[in-house]
Amino acid sequence: MTSPTRTAEVSALTPAAAAVHVCAVSQLTPELGVAALVGDAQVALFLLDDGSLYAVQNLDPFSGASVMSRGITGSRGSIPTIASPIYKQVYSLLTGECLATMDKEPKPGNEANLATYAVTQDNGQVYINLAGGE
């Protein structure tokens, strides 16, 4: 079953801005993803039960669809993960590394791993730094 996704409002992006305001933490539901357009990048944002925040590219490298925000959160030991809702590949939310390919290859031109982005929280507001990705 796929988790529902809410879309967060994104504030205006200025070229000089490193971290972009995305939404208030109170707008996020723990363990459910949110899709946000940050500049030209589609980002999947996750708030986990422990209060940690993670952001990865919303594009699923294996299906080519922008659906990672609808993925299923979980963990592999101490590593928080997200599983693609289409073919169920599992990715580390820390590094974006694909931990399980499910015997599939990514779409031509796509890397198997997800881009990750630095997420910060200040005064109850969530900020994403696209340049601060890993």
Output the number of helix runs: 0
**Strand runs, count:** 11
- Amino- and carboxy-terminal Cα gap: 30 Å
What's the gyration radius in Å?
14 Å
Give the helices and strands as they follow along the chain. EEEEEEEEEEE
| Overall geometry | globular
Placed side by side, the strands forming the largest sheet appear as: 1-3-4-5-10-11-2
Proportion of helical residues: under 10%
Rounded average pLDDT:
87
Structural class: mainly beta
Report the uncertain regions. 1-16
Tell me about the largest β-sheet. Answer: 7 strands, mixed
Strand coverage percent = 35-45%
What does this structure look like?
This protein is mainly beta and 134 residues long. Helices cover 0% and strands 40% of the residues. The protein is built from no helices and 11 strands. It has strands at residues 6-7, 19-24, 33-38, 41-47, 53-57, 72-76, 79-83, 90-92, 98-100, 116-122, 125-129. The chain has a 7-stranded mixed sheet, with no helix packed on it. Strands 6-7-8-9 form a 4-stranded antiparallel sheet, with no helix packed on it. A hairpin with a 2-residue loop joins strand 10 (116-122) and strand 11 (125-129). The protein is globular and about 45 Å long. The model is unreliable at 1-16 (pLDDT under 50).
Q: What features would you highlight for this structure?
A:
134 residues; four-stranded antiparallel beta sheet; mainly beta; disordered N terminus; 0% helix
